[in-house]
Amino acid sequence: MKRKVIAEKLKKQTTLNSDLTKIASFGKIISDFDKKLLDALSSIDINELNELEQYTSPYNEEILIDFKKLVAELKCFISTSKADAEKLKEVLAKNTVVSQTMIEVKNSLQDEFAEIRRDINQPNLKQKIILPYHKKRIKISKKLRSLNYKKAQKKHNQNTLLKLLDNRNTLLLNELNIYNDEISKINSQQDELQIAIEFKGDKESFKSILIEHFKGSGISNNKYSQIASHYTDMASLFIDTMLYDGKELKTIITPNEFTKVEKFLQR
User: Fold this and answer.
1) How many CA atoms lie within 13 A of 53 on its CB side?
2) By C-alpha distance, which of 93, 77, 75 is closest to 34?
3) Does 174 reside within a domain?
4) 120 & 133 share domain
5) Does one domain contain both 86 and 133?
6) Do 46 and 154 lie in a common domain?
7) Is 210 exposed, middle or buried (0-12, 13-18, 19+ CB in 10 A)?
8) Is residue 238 within 8 Å of residue 265, measured between CB atoms?
9) Global pTM?
10) How many angstroms separate the CA atoms of 55 and 72, rounded?
């Protein structure tokens, strides 16, 4: 219980600094936006707008009535925006008050921090020693959340890709069955010539595709033959390489060759 209480006190101390960082970040956003807004407003020539509003035309005055309304709307928008810019300054000032309040709370905890030092028997312990570790912990936590999100996204993409490839194979098999039905009819009508087809069985053509696709990888002709025999098509090679880190392909080619193949497939 004592350790838990101390841990909570330390967390309270270090969290204050994180809170102050967030408040300062918000203050910078307001300040930057206010400056950009004022710069944009100051770049507009009001005299030019006044001249446009008073402009007359001997032939198109009726059309210019709507135009002048637009000019008046812009002038009104500029006036409103200047008032909004002043409001932003008020928001910034209030944010500064919040920051100052937080700093006062932080300073008021000096006695509590001294008590923590006594509890853990570390009289020389200072907040500035703990804070880097706290900031590091926060940074690592954010990185872990990001990595977990990317991991989940990768898994989702893998499942989507596998499903698409499975659908593709189903369509190819359906097409093969249609060919087989027609071939069976031909074979049943005569004995001189028997025809047969094999699903993804043209390994020589597949090998030629591999050689062309991975030209410059340094893979030998014998290894190309092994790859063509091992995989049914380019899709199955892609799945092994990109989704499973080449678990099977690495048993055929060298690490250097695998790196090149991976780059070729990423193009």
Assistant:
1) 14
2) 93
3) no
4) no
5) no
6) no
7) buried
8) yes
9) 0.40
10) 12
Q: Where in the sequence is the domain holding 43, given as residue range(s)? A: 2-125
Would you put residue 157 in left (φ > 0), alpha (ψ -120 to 50) or beta? alpha
- Classified as helix, coil or strand, 250 is helix
Are residues 67 and 98 part of one domain? yes
8 Å CB contact between 161 and 153: no
How far out from the chain centre does Cα 154 lie? 11
Q: Which amino acid is at 228?
A: A
The token pair at 253 is 């080619």
Q: Are residues 146 and 52 in the same domain?
A: no
Among the listed residues 198, 206, 263, 258, the one whose alpha carbon sits nearest the alpha carbon of residue 234: 206
Burial state string for 84-113 with b = 16 or more CB within 10 A and e = fewer than 16: ebeebeeebeebeeebeebeeebeebeeeb
Location of structure tokens 């005569």: 190
Q: How do the pLDDT tens digits run along the chain, 267 residues long?
A: 345 455 566 666 667 777 888 888 888 898 888 888 888 888 888 899 899 888 888 888 888 888 889 989 998 988 888 888 888 888 889 988 888 888 887 777 666 666 665 655 555 555 555 556 666 777 788 888 888 888 888 788 778 877 887 887 788 778 878 887 888 888 788 777 777 776 656 788 888 889 988 888 899 999 999 998 888 888 888 888 888 888 899 999 999 999 998 888 877
Give, in degrees to the nearest 5, the angle at Cα 231 between 230 and 232: 125
Contact 201, 218 (CB under 8 A): no
Residue 120 and residue 134 in one domain = no
User: Is residue 168 a part of any domain in this protein?
Assistant: no
How many structural domains does the chain have? 3
Answer for the pair 27, 99: CB distance below 8 angstroms, yes or no.
Answer: yes
Tokens of 15: 């969290």
Q: In angstroms, rounded to a whole number, what is the distance separating the alpha carbons of residues 36 and 30?
A: 10
Q: Which residue has the tokens 């055929």?
A: 252
CA-closest candidate to residue 99, choices 88, 107, 110:
107
